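Ticket opened by: R.M.
Priority: normal
Category: complex prediction / small molecule

The reporter submitted a protein together with copper (II) ion and asked that the result be attached to this ticket for the collaborator who will pick it up next week. Submitted input follows.
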Amino acid sequence: MKTSKSLAAFGALALAASFAANVYAQTTMSKDSMSGMDMSGMKMDKIDKSSMPGMTLDTAANSAKTDGEVRKIDKENQKITLKHGDIKNLDMPGMTMVFKVKDAAMLDKVQVGSKVKFKAEKSDGAIAVTSMELAQ
Ligand SMILES: [Cu+2]
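Result attached by the on-call engineer:
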């Protein structure tokens, strides 16, 4: 009884061990071949095709500042009405709309009619002007 039990246990162990070893070998192998492909294939591809650094800079520059013209200033509620151009980072076409400003002090620098360059971002589900400067 005792012997057959431990034999069975040993058998199960050996089976499990060889199974694990098998899986390990397979996993290691497929990981190796995949990472090999990723490295030489995809990475180089990205750098060659889209020249990532250049594109990122371009996009950042384009979406960073939007042209606008001040239509109304509401210091009490920390809001500003801007006639604005396309806001690329928000996927918004040009229009006139009210923005919340992140910092009330931003409103002191501008007047109705001022041409500005501003950055708007979505935060807490609302769109807020996070930076604004007079356009030169
Ligand atoms: Cu808008």
